[in-house]
Batch of 3 targets.
Target 1
Amino acid sequence: MTAPEGRGFAQDLERLEQIVRRLEGEELDLDDALRLFEEGVERLRAARERLSTAELRVRQVLGTQAGKLQLGDIDR
Amino acid sequence: MGPSLDLFTAISPEGAWSVAELTRRARSVVEAGLPAVWVKGEISGFKAYGSGHWYFTLRDKVAQLRCVMWARDTQRLPAAPTDGLQVFAFGLPTVWEERGEFRLTVRHLLSTEAGGLWQIAFEKAKAALVRDGLLDPARKRALPPYPRRIAVVTSADGAAFGDIVAVVERRWPGAELLLVPTRVQGDGADREVCAALALLSRIPRLDVAIVGRGGGAKEDLWTFNSERVARAVAAVPVPVISAVGHETDVTLCDLVADLRAPTPSAAAAAATPDRTELLTALDRWAGALTRALAAPTRHAGERLERVGDRLTSVTERIMERFGARLSAGAARLDALSPLRVLERGYAVARDGDGRVLRRVAQFVPGSAFRLRVTDGEIPARVGET
């Protein structure tokens, strides 16, 4: 399983902070607490995934054509 | 053909030279007899024309020298000199025939003051940037903590981009690096850098930009001291890190950028978080998450305990209330117990299968039966009548 594309590391970390704060601060019933906990575990996993499996993408900007960015590969 | 150059022909009015002839002669003598030289003096009467040509006088306490510097040479200089400036001028002594004027055609000009013309240009441009508020510290934008798209405006050939790739690959490989290639030195490099910077605003979802080059000679940094480049940096819609690769000289580009890094590698490190540190931080978050769950779990446990306690006390009260009635009932039950009846001297007769023998007819003469008394059983037999 890979980290969801739509959100980034920042969002995962932010949500994680929020979850921990809610768990610590609010009187939650056990069901809600467990649900939050599970989401927190999922966010942690996704964040770790992003850090461990990422491979740097490097390209060069050739210009723009009709408002669209023209990208090219770079020999490394 | 002009008149003979024989000096004797000029000793009478009949052999008079024209002004043009003499000045042309003077020009050839001067140009042939005086080499290109460095001259030291003070600038006065400076005048720059729209064509790009400069006219001025070099003077010292004793003499003056008219000077001209053509546009093809003035355009290589960062700024025009000002009257009173002490300079070294390199040029060819000549005679300007139309004016009959001895003068120096200046090819190069150096200020003798610290930093020279570069410094003058720098201060002028800086003052303009200050006036427009571009150096206001409040303009500085914070760098995004976890950038996903990073653009780099630099030369495709220099070491700068390779250095940046290496650092980002190690620290934050989840990012995407986009090189916007441009020349960074030489004539017209400032225009190219400006065009590259302008392109940044058309890159979607860009988080941060690095502009710069590896180290270079002081003159090579001029591109990044151009007011035009500085203004282009200020116009970039995302935070910009300047990395001009010169420890001692701060360029205008550095001043306008949101952050100044001493080298391209340092810029890359400033632009990205460190993966190793983040993994450690995530471990701490995992701990925090588990500890945070402990609170709701404990609350639930405590509630369960409270309910349990109440259940126990309710049961106890019920038991108390019914206890008395229960023992009274028990006494009555006890009184009715067959064992108590046997105690009083009664006996129960049962056949071999344990059936109670209640009537005479059930006792077959000679048959065996058992007699239960209060402290045990006795085997018995019905007598013959």
Target 2
Amino acid sequence: MELLDLSFFTSAIRMISPILLAALGGALCARVGIFNVGLEGLILAGAFSAIVGNYFSGSVLVAVLVGALGSVLVSLLFGLAAIRFKANPIVAGIAINFLVLGLTTFGLRAIFDVKGAFYDKNMEGLPKVDIPVIEGIPVVGKLLSGHSPLVYVAFLAAILLYIFFYRTVTGFRVLAVGKNEAAARSLGLKVTFLQYGAIVACGILCGLAGAQLSLGQVTMFTEGMTAGRGFIALVAMMLGQSHPIGIVGSSLLFGLMDAMSIRLQGLSMPTQFTAMLPYIITIIAMFFLKDRGADSQLSGQQSSR
Amino acid sequence: MNLQRKLQQLLSSLVQPLTAVLIGLLTGAVAISLVGASVLETYKVMWDGAFGNFYFVTATLARATPIIFIGLGLAIAFRAGVFNMGAEGQMVLGAVSAALAALYVPGPGIIKILSALAAGFLAGGLWSLLAGWMETRFKVQLLISTLLLNYVAVLFAGYLVSEPFQDKSGSAALAQTPMIDQMAWLPKLFQGMSVHMGFVIAIVLAIILFIILRFTSLGYEVRMLGYNPFFAEYGGINKIKVLLFSMFFSGGIAGLAGTVEVLGSQYRYVEGSLTVPGYAWTGLMAALLANSNPIGTAVAAILLAALQTGAMGMERNTEVPLEIASVIQGVLILFVTAKITINWWKVKKKAGDIHGAA
Amino acid sequence: MTYVLEMKEMTKKYGEFLANDRISIHLKKGEVLAIVGENGAGKTTLMRMLYGLEQPTSGEIILGGKNVKFSGPLDAIENGIGMVHQHFMLFSDFSVTENIVIGHEPKRNGFFNRKAAAEKVKELSEQYKINVNPLKKAGDCSIGEQQRIEILKVLYQGADIIILDEPTAVLTPIEVEELLKTIQFLADQGKSIILITHKLPEVMKVADQITVLRNGKVTGNVLKQNTDVEQLATMMVGRELQKLTDRIQVNGEPLLMVDNLSIGGKDEKPILDQLSLTVHRGEIVGIAGVSGNGQSELIQAISGLRKIDRGSVRLGETTLTGKSVATRRNAGLAHIPEDRYLWGAAKEATVEETGLMGYYRKKMFNQSSFILLSPFRKLVRGWIERFEIKTPSLDGKSGNLSGGNLQKLIVARELGFETDFLIAAEPTRGVDIGAMEYIHEAIIEKRNNGDGILLVSSELSEILALSDRIAVMYEGKIVDILDRKEATEERLSVLMAGGNENESSKKTTTTA
């Protein structure tokens, strides 16, 4: 088996979508001045709700919608804490990660009466989309066609977000809120409204990311199945400087690493080391960050002037 | 007069965490009724499971032991104003290093114990220092780097006990080290009860840290750095040194959490034995709940441990799943954080008003 | 005659503190109303109520004959009131056009029509003769330009009443002249202007009507032709301004020696440019300059808070270059910082803890690294008494002290080190007059004791009142050092604007 064959890149593209979707959601929050550390929890909420929706409705579409809804509800809770109660968004985000972990393990027991993981062979996963013309092209067809619809949604979301930020009036105002909240408020912009809007949108995107995780490859939910993807998405967002196109680039990098770590498992290296790869690469990527989203302790607080 | 004011301060500092606990319990009540059980009865069973008799009390204290260590370690970092999220990795590396030291350092039991404690502290401390160094030297955000380092540490420890240091004696090849010599075990406090010497060490450590933070110049430097790093620097505090120091001790104490678990109750490092119960995250909650006061952290850690042992008792005796404890904890922390910052925000707002009037 | 705006009996309380006490003002179309008063007199609070940023405790606002209530700035903007804030509310990454149209962006099918926006801005700029480059990034604009953006923004929003809050504080004298012309032009076009300031010469140049505030109350309302600067000053301060006595010149040894100090400057404009300066014992050297010309960086470089690229700093026999803040403080440097909340204190720390900074290292208060609190408390109580610092207890949070009291605490702490050298940066910013006099007296007393003081202040009057010698900073350099006797406000103004000393002396000779 070759290390970098076509199927490697196909799997990389598949791996990208949860990270890309969540990172775009994180970018929306960052652009209204809220550093959202709760992405991990939001994705997990989405993954779990999607499975619940799938189990009870039997429809994949409903499952995805329920996934998005579940994530939005949690996201709103985060917004309430961070905006309404002025909680430190970082602590609130961490709390959200906890809460969702607790809620989903509880839900597994309460709803499915299982521990650890839930799987039902009758559940249907996300279908594969074959794009008519492209499908036929030799290499490109295999690379770009035959993914789950959420993979395409992820890339589409990046493009739409780009148009939103840089072409629409509302997007322009969202950018303004993040750049200088006091000024935006003094102009009478509906800062709080825009912040909640961004938080809801972030919930939807993270819900889709979760649905891709639990319905994309194998249709099942495992406790804590996000395994740090929310944090990787956060770094992807920072690395992409909260710019939609930049985020596509950085997510691509992390998707490749994810795929690489799976591919390397076939080799003689211990699985632990291959599994470490995405995290280590992410840490290394952080050395090159320019826009850090939230200020670090030592360089922070300057903005309080 | 002064005493009265101090008492008032103490009470008012307790109001918010208690409110959070109340909201947490209310949420738990909702969840309990959702699965169709009686709320009061279930809570009664939970209480009994945590404090019902002497055996349960000691079980609760045993569970609290690593949580106290973690909470204390994090309290130092939080006081210094850094979000150390890496307690889990620091604890696991501490545990595996301590197990290896106890296994391979020759000599009598006390030497083994001391070298295990030193190895556990150093491993946790250095791992944590790595994140601190990346932050101060390269501005790699500590909040996220520590989170990611957790995965690396846990995987690495998993590798150590499934490849080079695996216990091959058993019939099933489990991912664990061989058992350490009985002479290197931390003694139990009571015959047949699970609570061990580590609990005493934890409480003593809490008192020492309280004194250091409150009454020494080092503690002052740590706190001022956390309050306002610019003020600290302006006043001549070497903020990089204090930050690295805080991170080293923070991680070191997290490493001790793993160490005492290995020496006091597992007697070997078993993969997952520290991560599955979520000691690290419970310790983080304890520190947040107590607003990083060391004594308060210890108390909060015992309460959270009680919630968990109580939930286990509940699961044994009722139909309610034990995961309800995680829900209560999650809600609790969400509201505790809102509190911390509401206070902080009020102060800021007031100061802003004065600014505005000027 | 009908008024376009009346504010009647406006009162605003913050807890026990009465920021505005039954203040009434009125304004006619095309009129310039100046509201003058010292820092803390309540000018800003009054305007924040008019702009909807604060709700009055009582009082009414009558706009065009109708009683109005503003719940937020949006209400005020919709009712034709615009405000140019003292600290500009600009988005530095956005273009000038974007900054002006934001909130009322021209749209085409829901999309932001940037082309139409730029055209509108150009039109507006021509109509009111306010010159800006619509496509430039706001962050790249000079301070004067940024202010013009702010003015255009309120005009774009359709304001008929324009509030200018301390608009000249950050401007060079030449930019001030331009601004005053613009204000006059806008008034001629039928706009009504409210000018908030404490600079009386400007008021006399441009205002029609003047309302004076002191301690939250109106102390006078006069028409310009019936008053003069002296009368306004008396109403503002409540008594005759004290004349400063001449003082004995002390010829002390050099204490602080800054030599060829540079920060930045290989590829970009240097922040500090080969700056040299000496402060002698028994001398106060004042640094005058428009803020942002390197004063903050100079202070930080001397006190060790910022790395320097070239040059040296010495204090007496000790070389400070490259040393840590603690070493510098031990060598005999104390420092009243320019921003008390950023550098000078921790809001969440107690009053005692804020006072303890630096002292906890001293042998007197430190026994084998345990802090000895009781002798220290005695010391702090002494400060509280001497400077009349109002605090409920030593355990109260520093952030709960009023700005003036916190400033007094910081001044007391830094003076308490009894060092040979003191940096006093904006030592009286935002404090009341009583506190200001205390602080000034304490600084002069320190000088008379033979210590050296480097004073940095954006208040020219403070510099003139205290300094023995005055160094003027412009673009990271000291352009000239004047002796106390030869320094006048006019000469300093020219130097601060980057003008040449020769030109200024020519100017003074021709005017003399």
Target 3
Amino acid sequence: MRSGVTIFPGSNCDRDIIVALKNITGKAPIKMWHKDTEFPNLDLIVIPGGFSFGDYLRCGALAARSPVIKSIKNHISRGGAVLGICNGFQILIEAGILPGSLIRNKKLLFTCRDTMLEIQDTNISPFLSGLKKEHHLNIPVAHNEGNFFASEILLNELKNDGRIAFKYIKEVNNDTDYNPNGSSNDIAGILSKNGRVLGMMPHPERAINNLHGGTDGLKFLTKSFEQIIG
Amino acid sequence: MKISNQTLYNINKNEYQAQQESKLEDATEMGLTEDEFNLICNKIKKIPNKTELGIFSAMFSEHCSYKSSKKWLKTMPTKAKHVIQGPGENAGVIDIGDNLAAVFKIESHNHPSFIEPYQGAATGVGGILRDVFTMGARPIALLNALRFGSPSELLTKHLVSGVVKGIGGYGNCIGIPTVGGETNFDKSYDGNILVNAMAVGLANKNRIFYSAATGAGNPVIYVGAKTGRDGIHGATMASTEFTDNSSEKRPTVQVGDPFTGKLLLESCLELMSTDAVLSIQDMGAAGLTSSSVEMASKGSLGMYLNLDLVPTREDKMTSYEIMLSESQERMLMILKPGSEEKAKSIFDKWDLDFAVIGEVTKTGRLILDKDGFEACNIPINPLVEDAPEYDRPYEIIQNKNTIKINELNINYTVDEILAKIFENPNISSKRWIWEQYDSSVMGDTISSNGKSDASIVKIHGTENSKSLGKGIAMTTDCTPRYVKSDPINGGMQAVCEAARNIAASGAKPLAITNNLNFGNPEKKNIMGEIVGSIKGISKAASFLNTPIVSGNVSLYNETNGKGILPTPVIGMVGVIDEVENCLEMNVKEDNTLLVLGQSEDFTEGWIGCSVYQEIENKIIDAAPPPVNLEKEKKIIDILLQLHTKNLLTAAHDISDGGLLTAICEMLFKNNLGLNLNLPKSLLKIDSKDPTLHSWCFGEDQGRIIVATNKIDKVKFCLKDSNLDYFVLGKTNASNNLNLNDITTISIKSLKNSYERTLPLIMGKDK
């Protein structure tokens, strides 16, 4: 698989996803510096987590106006796949590639912890088609602005179009705090209309070995990549 | 140059003022004594102008000169085979094998964090990270040791909330995981909180960068953020006591910008991977003053700087302001001549300022030009060599009171005491705090936030076909109430507890960075606390072969004359060869718990200075538990031997709250229970029996609880070791702690208060 990872000056999960991509696909991704625009054709572009430009304005707002975004849009229009993780999800929304908004966590605190995700719609997206609907994944989050917010109309549309990728779910019966940020309908990740762009707050690249947050992130990424090439 | 020149007055009135001769009252306003002012005039053979005086006052401040503690710091053990660089550089460096070096340091940002908690704590993190990457190391982990006042005070909540947000704000954004630390509350910190931040980095052991200037004529480079008017005289502020009007000092607090910090980190490491950098120093406390003076002094050279070339945020800044600004995210470097263009292209790529602002000289003087006039011309030597060193009078007060167990006044049952222990915010879970820190960014965190006694981060790229790789273990420890009662003993205890924590995570303890936080050293008893704890730390560090390689001293932690508990924080680093062998503190079902370092016939525990004693008797006037260094060393060695033989499944050090508290902490995670084996003489007694209480809650040192599923093999190995041990029992699924017929305690309900205490205090848990 030919893949690329965008690098903004404040990206800080770029190394983590590069390692994951290399280990899973056997091929190192190309690094896509935010000021550059010329890249070879790719199967997948990952926009990693971090604080692209410090997030002093809205998270991802400046990154969404970087030269590299044009290349990402071209890639999407060619049918290429894009995965935005955490700040990458925020950038996809700020760039108008995914709908809705990501506002501050309900408790107004940065939150870093494990979450349990339930896979929602597996029909339209190569990211999910290799996985079972309602399957559970234990993947950590670490963010301050991950509270997905959208109008009722948009929320219904996402649901009806099968564009909700993941929801946070209860791990045990009395766990009232399972949604780490207060997002609408417990949404943790959404898809573009064609299913080839996925934005998610949790960090699959931080769950790729048993000593280190479990292997559910590895499982998700491996299945996704198989389907994207397939 | 003529300082009364009318031209200068016309160009920059304030600069003209800065170049005027100073007076004694200027000196006292800057925190210098009359003697110190006279010394300066003598040494430089003139009356300094205000800029020159400002430079002296910063260099002579306690924060930069260590004038009260230097005499004693020199007595600390700093050498060992594995030490590459001891104290005196930006950070300490140790050899961890495979051509790798661990670079680490702890530093305080106490005063600024009290005045402006978010920015104070954030810049504390930024500053310590710069200290580490200045040495050529990529930071891989952050820890912090925090002390706050009474949890019931509204101000405490404001400070906790701000400090935690500040630490997270910087660490999360720059992308270095915050993996551990400690937070305690005590009313002595009501007016003076402690914010100590520790950073650990990794470097190639042959690519360490130092600060000594080299080569007259070589260019001096300024990189990073622009210089503004923030933090002027921060070092001086950090060297005085507080009064009720301390909030007026808010403008002396620096403002952090973690995004620029990230750019500086990446660009400096990129430049350091070339051969362009000869020496480098970060601009921390006392900014451009201390960085330029220290570089020149260490290289026995001089420095010329044209301050008009310094990138500034505001117009018409004076030489005084530029030299004393503590604007963050700035570095001073000396480059190999001819490499300026190559270096500039890297900083251009990262959109950071880059300016050649001067050159190294042979003069031995610091010469500064501003607005075309000479703003400063002083010899370097007196700034460093002649900085005062005081031999302050001291008295080490060691409390010798021991508490007789049968004279104890017992109010509570064992169950009630345990309930109170886990409602104590010093012992309860700090989840509310650490969930606000990104602990897993960089993808190498193996253990953070109390999963094991020390935090463990994998060394990126050391994995091979046999192992997931090598890891660094880190912890911070100090029990201030022990130090207060007996500074020597308390100093030793802090080192030993840190070493036990490293060992209990499966790693070998290697070296120390320390942060000595005390009150006003001009008071005899406080100077005694400083001297005593340095003696204790030194004794233990040398016995355990864990030398002190870096550190920081923070004095004058007093408000309105009331000092903090003496708090010499020990940050310790160790190494684990295969991270998959790290030991958690959480025990699994059907494992046998045994306590190492405690005999079968031991029944009377040490309750002087314990958490128990605070709860039951409200007296703290007693000697802390004694420390036996031979026993401490032995327990660490034997624990690691057992672990090497693959016999252990978990380990946890016994500290605050004693044996029973430690057992509960091990059972919490997996919701387990235990039928606790009691010494024979305690089998049939009352839940209010004083001896039973002392056994359950005594804080005797040199004990670690280990878990095993191969108890016979463990017993066999311990037979010849001459180390006492006591089998506590086998874990079960009951989720109850059973003390024979005496009582049955619900672990579930203790865990509930363990988790709820801090969120309830912070009042933000919905």
